[in-house]
Write a structure and sequence with these properties.
This protein has 471 residues and is mostly helical. It is built from 18 helices and no strands. It has three domains: 146 residues, no CATH class; 142 residues, no CATH class; 68 residues, no CATH class. Helix 1 packs antiparallel against helix 2, helix 3 runs antiparallel to helix 4 and helix 4 packs across helix 5. It starts with a helix and ends in a 7-residue tail after the last helix.
Length: 471
């Protein structure tokens, strides 16, 4: 049954959403709304002791801080995704993060809104048709019509005898604003799942039943069938011996290439080598984790002769970790020569994610965790890493680092970045840096395009050393 208090909170949050975001920049408003929304939803649903809700809400607030600081389109996109995830955890607080995302998507696409409307209509119908006990029953309507009508007539008569007794009621001029009404409707739809939750019950129930810790399944082996665990373990041992030998040779060859440059016969340049190597490495690491998930599933973890396989898989994980460090080292050399770019930053982030994935895989092997546990933990890691990514103003960092530390400066790339890097460009112009002077007009044009006060523009012009007026 629909509750009046729930509707009032829903309407209040919709009004707050409209007030903060309609025809306004996202920026700080995102953080203000998120703090209010998280506090209200946590209090109303009693979620203060729910671990997954608190994790999701913390990640959402981190993303909101990044959005408040920078308000890039990518920050706003991730902010909205995290908002959907919160809606999913309202429906099922103990579900996996990806299941919460699915439920949040389903609830946000009108389903929760339609459910709330249908519940409201049902509630209104029951109240109107409620027999005897309802004060405003249809059967009692004639009881109130005559007294109210007569009272209104006498009020008008008294007002005619003394005009000062009449209340002056004036309605302000109001024009229909279709954009405002549409935005309020949009806000009501996306906020609705936080109060009228909706999702797939069967998917959620199945997800919650999946354990994090493995348990041995005892199956009676039929006579004449092969010893599945024995042959599978033998196959895995042979495979990991070969894979370990291959990765050792690969690492050794890469190290030798550093000291013997004549071994570099590839036609690809340094950039292609780093990025292609990174993409190939990520694919190989994902395949490695999938192999371990396959060979360490179910009863294979309880096989009495699994020690050799565990050692080989652990060695494989360690060697892949060394390969990650080596890729990071090559990326550092690349940055030292050509400076920071978003792709080179993403290489570090990708290596961080895969490194954490390998660590969690090692935990799975030694603590007998399920594959579902591995999936759950990796999605949480991905959520927080992506959320924390928005906290850094990468444009400013790139513009600060490249002129000061890169051996080769690509000014075309720097000029393509966001306006947040203007202070560093102004400093370079004030210092008459020959690498920046050819772009003086372009920088001045970017300052003009910034939607801030004229005083700031004039001050920026003075810092940059412009002799021409910025107006």
């Amino acid at each position: 049954m629909i509750k009046i208090r729930t509707c009032l909170l829903w309407f209040a949050m919709t009004a707050a959403h409209t007030y903060l975001f309609y025809e306004n920049e996202t920026g700080v408003n995102a953080l203000v709304f998120s703090l209010l929304m998280v506090a209200v939803v946590t209090w109303y649903h009693g979620l203060l002791k729910e671990k997954f809700w608190l994790l999701a809400a913390t990640g959402h607030l981190i993303i909101a801080i990044g959005t408040a600081l920078h308000a890039r389109w990518s920050d706003v996109f991730v902010y909205n995704i995290s908002f959907v995830i919160l809606a999913g955890f309202v429906f099922a607080t103990r579900s996996s993060l990806w299941v919460a995302f699915v439920n949040g998507i389903i609830g946000s696409f009108l389903f929760s809104f339609l459910q709330a409307i249908m519940s409201g209509l049902k509630f209104a119908q029951e109240m109107l048709l409620k027999p005897h006990h309802s004060l405003f029953s249809f059967k009692k309507m004639p009881l109130y019509v005559a007294p109210v009508s007569v009272t209104v007539i006498f009020y008008m008569l008294y007002g005619a005898s003394n005009p000062d007794f009449l209340l002056e009621i004036s309605f302000p001029e109001w024009e229909f604003n279709f954009g405002l009404i549409a935005y309020m409707g949009f806000g009501a739809i996306i906020i609705c799942p936080l109060f009228f939750s909706y999702g797939i019950d069967k998917l959620t129930e199945w997800d919650v039943k999946q354990p994090d810790v493995l348990s041995r399944i005892r199956v009676k082996r039929q006579s004449g069938t092969p010893l599945g665990l024995f042959y599978e373990n033998k196959q895995a041992v042979i495979m990991f011996i070969m894979l370990n030998a291959l990765i050792i040779l690969f690492l050794a060859f890469n190290v030798i290439q550093i000291f013997v440059p004549t071994l570099n016969h590839s036609a690809a340049d340094f950039s292609q080598q780093v990025h292609q190597g990174f993409e190939t490495l990520v694919i190989s690491l994902v395949v490695a984790i999938l192999l371990i998930m396959y060979y360490f599933r179910a009863n294979q973890n309880f096989y009495g002769r699994k020690e050799k396989l565990v050692r080989l898989a652990s060695l494989w994980i360690a060697l892949n970790g060394i390969l990650i460090l080596f890729t990071c080292y090559k990326n550092i050399l690349y940055i030292d020569s050509f400076g920071l770019t978003y792709k080179r930053i993403w290489v570090f982030i990708g290596m961080l994610l895969t490194g954490i994935g390998l660590y969690l895989t090692l935990l799975k092997i030694y603590r007998l965790k399920t594959n579902w546990y591995l999936l759950r933990q990796n999605t949480w890691v991905l959520y927080f890493v992506i959320g924390s990514y928005g906290l850094v103003d990468w444009d400013r960092l790139i513009t600060w680092y490249n002129p000061n530390y890169a051996n080769n400066l690509d000014m075309e790339y720097i000029m393509s970045l966001d306006n947040s890097q203007l202070p560093y460009l102004c400093e370079l112009l004030a210092a008459n840096d020959p690498r920046v002077m050819p772009y003086e007009k372009h920088i001045m044009s970017k300052i003009r395009s910034v939607k801030i006060s004229t005083k700031w523009q004039e001050g920026a012009g003075m810092i940059c050393g412009f002799k021409r007026s910025l107006r």
